[in-house]
Structures are given as C-alpha cells and as structure tokens.
C-alpha cells in the first residue's frame, strides 16, 4: 500500500516499471485460471479484467466515502497479444475511516498498483483423440448427472422444506409476511410446486442420460461415415474440445501435471511482480480443481505470497484429482487447505462462489457429500451450521437458468466481481454497512429470480398462445397482411409475367383460417424470442439502476416498480393457460369457481415467490469448531428486508446520496424529482461550491 502522491506520476516512470515488472513494484497481482475448453490467448484475461476494473473504478470514485477526481482506475499497460499477456493498473481510493474518526477529518487517499495475468493451460499438452474422450465421457456423465439431480433436489425441494420448518421458529417480526399462518401456507405451496416441477425435470434428465450412454462411445466410429461427419462433425469436435481437457485431467496424469505446471509458473511470475505484495489466484470451473491441487498439494503458497484463492463454478468436488491405474488416492481439498494454513501468520483465504443452478459446481465444496449438504443448508440458514469445515461460501444468482449459470459468473457484478475487488484492494477500501449490503444483495436476488419467473411465463405463453383459436386466426391474418406487400412488390417488378402467389406459398403455415402445426411452431418461436428478449432488456435495465446508479431508488419504490413486469408476465401466462384449458379440456360449470380459485393461488404464488423466497447469505470460512460456533451465534438474529430498510445506516446513506445527487439530462432530472425529492439548488448557493466528480 502506498499513500497517494501529491502530484500525478510520470507516465515514463510507469512505462519503465511495466517494462521490468519483476522488480516488485506492484502491490497485488491477480492470476486468472480458465475452466474447461479451448481458451484462446487473453480470453480469460479480458473476460474478467474488464468487469473487475470497470466496477473497481466505480467503487473507488464513490463520493459517499470521500472520493474526488483523483480517485479511480488508471490503466498503465494492456499487453494482450504478447506471449505473456499482462494488464496493469493504478487504483486510488479513499481510505476507510475508523470508527472513532472525527466527522470532518481529512480524507486519506491510498494508491495501489495491480497486475492481472492469466494461467492458460489449454495448449500445454497434445489433446486426446475423440475416441478417448467419448469413451470416458459416458461413465463420467452419470457422475455429473447424479450431482446435478442432487443440486436440483436441494434447490427445488429441500430448500422449501427447510424454509417450511425454520420459519415457525423465527419471531413473527422477522418474517417477511408478518404472519405465521400466511407464511406457513406460502411455504407449503412452494414445497408442493417445487416437488411438482422437480419430478418431470429429473425424469427428463434421466431419460436423456440413458439415451446418451450407448451413443457417446459410438460417436468416434460414426465419424468414419462421411455423411455423418459432414452433418455433425463440427458439433462433435466442438464438444470434444470442451470436455477434452476434463478427460486429460482425470485420465492422463502427465497431461494433468502439465496443467498444474502452467498454474505454478503463473503464480511464481506473479510473486516476482509483487515482491513482498499479495498474490491472488482466481479460478473458474476445472481451473479451480487444477488450482486447489497445485496450491495445496504441490507447492507452498506462502512462499509465493498467495493470500487469496477465489473459485467460481468450482468443479473441485466433481473432478478431484488425476487417476492412476491401480491407485485409490483419497482427495481431501478442504483438509489440505486447512493443513496449509496451520502456523502461518498470513494464511491463505479461500472464497468459493457457486450459482444455485450450476450443475458443475453443484453447491459448496467439502471433502464428503454429506458435509457438502450440511454446508449448502447453512448457506440459507446459518443457524443450522454444523461441524463441516470449509472455505467462505457465496451462493449466488447469475441468470437463474441451469447450465447457463456456469458460464456467466463474470456478469455477476454484486455477488462475484465486488467481493473479488474487495479482496484485491484489502480492508482499506471503504464499503457499506451490513444493513446496506444485505439490502443490495436481497434486491439483486429478487431481480434475478424475477428473470427466471418471467422466462418460464414467456415459454408458457409462447407454447400455448398460438393454439388458441382466436389467436390462431389473428396470426393467420397477420401472415396475409405481411405477405401482401411482398406480393405487390413482386408484381411490380415481374412485368407481364404472372406474379408469384406469396400468400399461397406460405400455405404450410396456415389452412382454413387457422395455423397449421408448422405455423404454430414458427409463431411460438417468434413469440418466445420477443418475450424473452423483452425480459432480458427489462432485467438488465433494472440491474443497472440497482448497481450503477449513484443514488438508486429507495427500497419501497424499487419493489413496487420492478414488480410490474413480473406481474404482467405471470398474469399473461395465467390468462393464456385459462383459455387453453377452456378450449381443449373444458371444466364443468360447477367446478369452474374452484378452478378459478386454484388459478388465483398459483398466479399469486408465482408473482410473490421472487419477493418472499429465501435468499442465500455469505457464510464465513470455517476451519475450526470455534469458528462454527461464531457462525451460529452471528445467525441468532438474522437480518430481514423490513429491518434493514428501516435501519439508521440505510436511512443515513440514502440521505447522503440524495444530497450528492446532481442529475444530468431531462430523464435523470425527472427521475430525481419524482423519486428522490430533488430540487434545483439556487444559483447563488452553488456558485462557490467546490466541483465534485
């Protein structure tokens, strides 16, 4: 750490330092390790460096903590095409005030130089053949499938069950619905819906696995058939490239050692950059398995000043270590990490981020499956923490979609990128109070859950809507309306020849004033594309207002406004399902009121679920029984959204942000006027005011 100089550093000195980075002029270095698949040069470096530095600049320029124009991130070098890519930056930020600091005390600035490099092992060995990869993929697929089903069971069924039995033990004032009866009924509906959804999902996954089991070993021989290779060769080669490194890690110890050597060299290079500074290792997916083995089994992380290991979507439990024939090595990464910490003044900290729908990480990291389940439960209810030891756990929400969650950790600004930045810059970086941090995380979870709810509603609408008779007739008319101008243009340029029958040419889409099967499929695809695109646009805009506005909406206004899109999607899906049932499976009049009540209950639940669903919390690392007791004691009075929004810390921060609010443009001005009570300041009052960032 260095105190900021009074004058700006000479650019020539910065370039000289970058030219000889081994002199230890950096304060911290971040080593990025990619996951499975063929990573190109600088791919993982750009994927993570850009969001990290962008958010870091935003965080360090926050005026609430005393930042001014001198604060922020300055890029010193960005060598992303050389043999050893390197991105370096200088970051300046206001130092965190101590609790006893005077309100008017001058702000002290801190300056740190950061180096970001990558450990890319995808080209460190000769790849395996397609036959080797797919022979191994069949048995391994079942291990991945069973872990995925356990994760889905935990998320869809066990979590509602734990919620159902935990809420009655909580004080009524801590409940979101403020009523134990309503809370019990809501939790019961969640459990029933979760079980009803899990059963068909599990059945589909199992059937798919059964079908793929005999197909995977036959893929390589089938590639010898020219027609098959032409039709599916590119897809199969792409799949082989994605899982080929996983096969090499598990089946070929020599190649696995080559992967670890790349990580080890990158860590040693980072140590040369920082001298006595800190080295941070950040690993995704298979890279997490490679990094944990390298750090805690093959090298001394303290000798290289490794202070932090961050894993995201970690496949540590899934992949374990390489397999030597005839050898049954027991791999215990958590115990290895704890052993490496023993007797160290600066032990390696480990933070693990896993998305709730990521089938590859499939939850927390532990040395045994039962321990992993206990640690998963504590991520939602820390009071239930057991003696299962392990790293700091972050259960996160990426995009609320299975499989896609594994690839989008870098887009999770609040739950993944920000904690990484705080680890890099250290405890001097100021941050929000626990109440404000809880609010930010809770609202972020609500937004991501709304994304998933709206996605499901969009699919339901798209599948059923074209089949309703009136809508089908309307879409048929739309086809005719769209085809008519095309026919007119064709007739205009066709001369004396007969104009082509465009409407008739689209006859496969409609017949007798209704859509055909193909017309239904095409219409469903177009409706789904439109609704899903709108949902993503809305969710992205809501996330930007939540995370990137210097003065975000108050909690009440945010909850009210952001619930409107979810209400439209859910009610729209309910209306479409009602008319579909009335058309294809009409209910007797005497049963219609009961059916209407059921529709109202399910619709209300789908709308409110995102708002009142349990949200995960960060569970501190546990390396001893004493730390487990601390986790349980800290969870005795859990925060809730209603308590946090009424806290003095949140009220003071919101008031301070409103004081610093300076909207630019008519839209921002209107927004500030309506929701923050902002009013233009008199010219005389601001004429001599110092200019702020």
Automatic annotation (TrEMBL):
InterPro entries: AB_hydrolase_fold. Keywords: Membrane, Transmembrane, Transmembrane helix. The keyword DNA damage does not apply. Residues 1-20 are annotated as: Disordered. The keyword Membrane applies. The chain crosses the membrane at residues 148-165, 177-198, 204-225, 451-475, 515-534, 555-579, 591-608. This is Uncharacterized protein. It comes from Agromyces aureus.
